[in-house]
Design a protein that fits this description.
It contains 14 helices and 30 strands. The protein is an alpha/beta fold and 609 residues long. The protein has 4 domains: 231 residues, TIM Barrel (Alpha-Beta Barrel), CATH 3.20.20.60; 72 residues, Thrombin, subunit H, CATH 2.40.10; 98 residues, Enolase-like, domain 1 (2-Layer Sandwich), CATH 3.30.390; 97 residues, no CATH class. Strand 22 and strand 23 form a beta hairpin. Helix 1 packs parallel to helix 8. The mean pLDDT is 96.
Length: 609
């Protein structure tokens, strides 16, 4: 079983560093039509990244996962052909209309926006012709196991990063409020806004809290159980995060996965990584962490802030006129950014001008009390470490140096069995010392420098009989390595994947509403060909929100407040709320009614504006 660590690539530079830090695969935004409109890339840059990734046997997946209007389909197909031509390994797509288009023979992955959260839904993806399904973030390990037992497609699951409060592909609030659709790559993130919470009869319960903002996802303690459940690709969220995040989180999960390798499990790419830092997820962007629904429901909201809080470092122990003393063992440094929650529960922060032991001098003295918990959300020393080259990834190579009738050859064979040969036309000049000659050959051929290779051994089949100048040995080594690099890139170019042919047993739902996200004729044709009779077009096209659910979430605000209608709370109530009272969210002039489906354990959000 090959296990794949899948990292985000905001651009070419970020993608290279993700590979350097251990990614077996990357996902990157195409020039257009990706679900992160702020993270697009040129075909030329993606081609460079493909070649760099393939050198290590890593793969590159391009995101083309927005829903498409009719006038965009031709341009999308032209772009997909360009991505295929440069060697992209697979496309991540949402729109079923693409399955009706004349696509090149490239592998297709069903985006998490296809709401892939049940065995039935994944079976449908398999029958539609997708090679892989990216599971909804809300999927538990037990549900993963059930999906694996019922299907045969590759299963990819998120393990780290930001969480959308709504099921992906089932959020229409941004489109409703701003005309910016998450399904079109332009989400305005209303879930990160602050809201007031009222009862249906107008009683204020909570004021100005981030009631729909979740902590960040961290599945690191559950990787083993996810493997046992059938997951083979482990995805890190973060195409809009900074470079230190990509380096740190990729390295962290690389080490975790490597520790789980055995005779039946192996990495999905080549090379061994070494790091000049100790990976630590708390030291780069995070809102606090939750393992979400992997095991059991638990409080997961970040009511007090939607911003990064970083790592807890201690409590305020003394307060001077211009200084603070903070408990804890984490070393502090000039330039650190520290934060805390004030008396109103809002996040405040300050920069550290000077450190003396556990006493810091803030740039601006905050209003703070003894006993206040303090976090560090900008770790100056850690960031400086990650600004420098912070990882090496080396592929093991064996060398064989031989004499021929007209000179010498150098044969290379790497850990994947890829080979390369460089020759040297030269007279056979006897060596004065066979030992010295062999030592020189081994020494010069072992110098790989900044290349991607680590020499496992050099065999001198000439047994040192001949003298070869160091310059000629160096030239042979350089040429052989250049050939090996080219051969590896060619070796890992993906094979053609025939256009998926939907299974004869594929049966789409008889009726679909706006949540099927159909906004083009080809998608409608696909559904109708496979049994759908009634189709409602998506709200991005109709603009009709009347009575429609704007968000469907597995997250439950009543549970978070300690007021679960099923009595499943494990924490005290935060508000005085009667069992049957309705709830309303308010943000400026926008009002939203909350409806709780306890049978499915879901929350629905409707507009009251």
């Amino acid at each position: 079983m090959k296990l794949e660590l899948l990292s985000p690539a905001k651009n070419l530079e970020f993608g290279r560093e993700a590979v350097n830090h251990g990614a077996d695969a990357l996902y990157i935004g195409a020039p257009v039509f990706g679900a992160r409109a702020a993270a697009t890339n040129t075909i030329e840059d993606i081609e460079q990244l493909v070649n760099y990734a393939h050198l290590y046997g890593s793969k590159v997946f391009a995101t083309v996962n927005t829903i498409l209007f009719d006038n965009e389909l031709d341009d999308a197909v032209k772009m997909i052909r360009q991505l295929y031509n440069i060697g992209v390994d697979a496309l991540i797509v949402q729109d079923f209309g693409l399955l009706e288009c004349d696509l090149p023979p490239i592998e297709l992955h069903a985006s998490t926006q296809c709401h892939n959260n049940t065995p039935e839904r994944i079976k449908l993806m398999e029958q539609a012709g997708f090679k892989r399904a990216i599971l909804a973030r809300e999927t538990s390990t037990e549900e993963m196991k059930a999906i694996r037992e019922a299907t045969h497609v590759d299963l990819e699951a998120f393990v780290h990063g930001a969480l959308c409060v709504s099921y992906s592909g089932q959020c229409y609030m941004s489109q409703f409020l701003t005309g910016r659709s998450g399904n079109r790559g332009c989400c305005s993130q209303p879930c990160r806004s602050s809201y007031d919470l009222y009862t249906a009869d107008g009683r204020l319960l909570i004021k100005e809290k981030h009631l729909l903002s979740l902590k960040d996802f961290d599945a690191s303690k559950h990787i083993g159980s996810m493997i046992d459940a059938g997951i083979t690709s482990f995805k890190i969220e973060g195409r809009l995060k900074d470079l230190s995040y990509v380096k740190n989180i990729t390295a962290y999960y690389r080490q975790l996965l490597d520790n789980l390798m055995d005779e039946e499990r192996e990495p999905a790419s080549s090379g061994r990584c070494t790091f000049s830092f100790t990976p630590d997820p708390e030291r780069t962007f995070n809102r606090g962490y939750t393992d979400y629904f992997l095991k059991e429901r638990q409080p997961m909201a970040s009511f007090d802030t939607q911003k990064s809080i970083g790592k807890p470092i201690g409590e305020v122990t003394t307060i001077g006129r211009y200084t603070l003393s903070i408990s804890g063992a984490e070393p502090l440094a000039n330039g650190d950014g520290l934060c805390f929650f004030n008396n109103e529960g809002h996040l405040e922060g300050f920069n550290v001008n000077r450190v003396e032991g556990r006493t810091v001098t803030p740039n601006t003295m905050p209003t703070i009390k003894i006993g206040t918990k303090v976090w560090r959300n900008n770790d100056q020393q850690f960031e400086k470490q990650l600004e420098k080259p912070s990882a090496e990834r080396k592929i093991k190579v064996e060398m064989l140096f031989c004499a021929t009738r007209r000179g010498f050859t150098l044969d290379l064979k790497d850990e994947d069995g890829v080979t390369a040969t460089a020759g040297l036309k030269s007279e056979h000049m006897p060596a004065q010392s066979q030992i010295k000659s062999t030592n020189l050959i081994v020494k010069q051929l072992s110098k790989t420098g900044n290349t991607p290779f680590e020499i496992l051994k050099v065999v001198d089949a000439t047994e040192g009989q001949y003298f070869i100048p160091a310059l000629q040995l160096n030239d042979m080594r350089r040429r052989a390595i250049e050939i090996l690099i080219d051969n590896r890139i060619k070796h890992f170019r993906p094979e053609d994947t025939p256009k998926p042919l939907p299974s004869p047993t594929l049966q789409m739902p008889e009726s679909v509403d706006y949540r099927a996200n159909i906004v083009n004729q080809k998608a409608e044709t696909f559904y109708k060909k496979h049994g759908t009779k009634e189709i409602e077009r998506g709200v991005e096209q109709t603009g009709d929100y009347d009575g429609k659910i704007l968000m469907t979430t597995r997250y439950c605000l009543r549970y978070e407040l300690g007021c679960c209608l099923q009595g499943k709370n494990t924490h005290k109530p935060r508000v005085n709320l009667a069992h049957g009272e309705g709830l309303v969210l308010r943000n400026n002039d926008n009002r939203f009614r909350l409806e709780f489906d306890c049978k499915e354990c879901q929350m629905h959000i409707f507009s009251l504006s």
